[in-house]
Amino acid sequence: MKKKPGPHISKTSKKEKQDFLENYTLHMADDALILGHRNSEWTGHGPILEQDIAISNIALDLIGQARNFYQYAADIINKKRDGKKKIDEDILAYHRDVWDFKNCLLAEQPNGDWARTILRQFFFSLYQFYLYEQLQYSKDSTIAAISEKAIREVSYHVKWSGEWVIRLGDGTEESHQRMLNAMDDLVKFTGELFREVNYEQEAFNKKTGANLSELKPKWEQKVNIILKEATLPILADRKWDLYGGKEGKHTEHLGYILAEMQFLQRAYPGCEW
Amino acid sequence: MDTTKSEILKILNEVMDPEVPVLSIIDLGILRKVEIENDLVEVFVTPTYSGCPAMDAIKTNIQKTLLQHGYKNFRLTTILSPAWTTDWMSEKGKEKLKAFGIAPPMPRQHICKPELFHEGEAIQCPLCNSYNTRMISQFGSTACKALYQCNDCHEPFDYFKCH
What we know:
The complex is a heterodimer of chains A (273) and B (163).
Chain A: H1 14-18, H2 20-40, H3 49-80, H4 89-94, H5 105-108, H6 114-135, H7 141-169, H8 173-186, H9 198-205, H10 212-229, H11 253-261, H12 263-267
Helix pairs in contact in A: 2-3, 2-9, 3-7, 6-7, 6-8, 6-10
Chain B: H1 5-12, H2 25-28, E1 31-37, E2 40-45, H3 54-68, E3 74-78, H4 91-100, E4 102-103, H5 108-111, E5 133-137, E6 145-150, E7 156-160
Parallel strand pairs in B: 2-3, 4-7
Antiparallel strand pairs in B: 1-2, 5-6, 6-7
């Protein structure tokens, strides 16, 4: 089916409608896993000890959320596969390839310096906060339960990263410049967060998923408040964004992430402690 | 064997948090309920933080403890909702935490505010009892704890974050 160019998304096919819950859950799991993995790359390399610990703990929170979503996705998939071998969270995390992953592009961007990392975290955690705030009331009780737990952890992530944006933005000349560079790199990936794809639309129709168009203005407003306090330029209207991650079209970074993250499980399939 | 809920609860009170071995899973509010039907013992637990690595160890310990006491017919079920909160920690549990050197969590509604740079109520030093303390990092030795330092006795300590 030929996709129309531009913001309009192709009509949701019958199969897409059947698989929406599995895809929606995997998307949220992949977001959390990939960003969690990126954050874990700082472990042992943080600028100072307390912040090394902080970002490692944030990674842990994210991976925990990913596990909850992967376990649910595995249940959904197993229900459809009577007779076939059951899959679990590990198969979903470690045996899918780049085109299967549905994380947003922002999550897979390289860590860069501390400014880039904390800005990426701030953009993403604030999005997760408003997303989980809505999903607490999802008609799907498992998604609601996972979101109810996750939002409390994410509140701390928003606080931590927001404070860093202000410290570095309204800091020294060097930290301010590094924040400007980080914004130049990352802002173009934020549009995708609110760009609805077919399974998100279907999830929303079924009162299971969030309303992204409601999320976007809240997110933008809060981001601009923090950016102003950080003496950074507020978000301007952009004519284009980079997107595609939610549909398995990734930047080249994801391949390298998976090569490292999945190496052990692919070299020794079914390995156990 | 005549199984009663109170017997199971007494046994499960032996399962300790691996990080804070003075606290049992009942003190922490991780054990939500026990149901017994036709000799099948069903234990319901709820995880604390999504990514808490101690949860796997705790689940293994629950199974081990039940087996050690001769119970073979049991099922361990994880329930995510209602979400675990530090408000479920018993008063006894909070006292044990303090005696162990960790500042116990404040009540959620008083302090859990997401505003940036919000200092909130002072956390009491579990060692010298002074309220003249400061936060060093929102994340301490584990995701559930924050790192504080006492300005009076100068000792660092962990604070169990309200959640």
